[in-house]
Structures are given as C-alpha cells and as structure tokens.
Design goal:
The chain is an alpha+beta fold. Helices cover about 25% and strands about 30% of the residues. It has one domain (about 5-180): Peptide deformylase (Peptide Deformylase, Alpha-Beta Complex).
Length: about 180
C-alpha cells in the first residue's frame, strides 16, 4: 500500500525515533509499504518519520541509481552510526518530505553503521559512495535532522519561498503527501 509522505513542517520530522523490537505490529507489511511508497515517489530512501511513525527504521534501494553498479537494497532497524570518515564530498540531495527542493550537501564518503535487519539480526558495516550518502541522509531522519539543516543560512533564505509552499500545502509533490496542519 502506498502511504502518504509526511511533509516538511510536521513536528514528527524533528523527533528522534524510538527503537523497536520484533514484536512491532505488522513490521513486514510496514517495510513493504515503505518500499512501495518510496518507489512510487521515485525515491532511493525512506525513513519511518517520513510516513508519520516515530521509530528507528529506514529503507534504501540504490540499485536503480544511474551509472551506480554497487547499489544495494536494505532495511535498517535501530541503526547507530559509529563513525563517518574519509574525504568529504558535495552532492545534490533531495528529500521526499521536501518536494521540489534540491541542495548541495557536504558529507563524508564513508559511514560505519550498526543496525538490525528485518529479521532483527545485527550487522556492522561500512558503506561508501551513494550507498553511504543515502544511509547518512536517512539516518538523519530518524535523528530528527533534515538535509536542509546541512546547508548555509544564506541558502536556506534563498529557498524560503519553496519551503513556504510546502508549509502552505501548495506544492505539487506528484505523489501522496500529508501536509501538516496546526489545527489538529
């Protein structure tokens, strides 16, 4: 089932997620729904807060990124970044919760992460390139951080109208999105 993506402005995007265990209700269905939602919106990663859930879970699939032969499809539950290292590099990022906005973000080219997979098996791995970048971006989501937090205040001022169009619910994302309303 395609879920609505939570739009910029919703406070859930600024919360740190909670760890879950194997008893989390309908977890495998949620993971399938998150992948379906991500593919429907042409994304390469999606974190649980982006579908309105305050839990430490994200999915990625970089296998369809143009000219990237090392793509992966993985589920990350209760992730913990252990280290970010190597050379820093700038790459244009976007986010399904911030439709129509893309900005250059500087990140390290290696990330070492401990996580559990969909069967709650533990893994500790180092990822590089696009895989590492997408993991860092999605990990930020479960920590309450958005990619625009990594840009300069000047760049943020320059995209203010685009941010306001999301806050006002006037942007056309091209996929189902749930705009935040203070009237709730």
């Amino acid at each position: 089932m395609i879920l609505k993506v939570t739009a910029y402005g919703d406070p859930i995007l600024r919360n740190e997620g909670q760890n879950i265990d194997a008893n989390y209700p309908s977890l495998h269905q949620l993971i399938n729904d998150m992948y379906e939602t991500m593919y429907n919106a042409s994304g390469v990663g999606l974190a649980a807060p982006q579908v309105g859930l305050n839990i430490n879970l994200f999915v990625i699939d970089t296998s369809k990124v143009d000219d990237y032969k090392e793509g992966i499809k993985k589920v990350f539950i209760n992730p913990e970044i252990l280290d970010e290292f190597g050379k820093s590099w700038i790459y244009e990022e976007g986010c399904l919760s911030l439709p129509k906005i893309r900005e250059n973000v500087e990140r390290f080219d290696h990330v070492k992460i401990r996580y559990q997979d969909e069967n709650f098996n533990y893994h500790e791995e180092t990822f590089t390139g696009i895989n590492g970048r997408v993991i860092q971006h999605e990990y930020d989501h479960v920590m309450g951080v958005l990619f625009i937090d990594h840009i300069t205040p000047l760049r943020r001022r320059l995209i203010r109208k685009k941010l306001d169009s999301i806050l006002n619910g006037t942007v056309d994302a091209g996929y189902p999105i749930r705009f935040y309303s203070k009237k709730r």
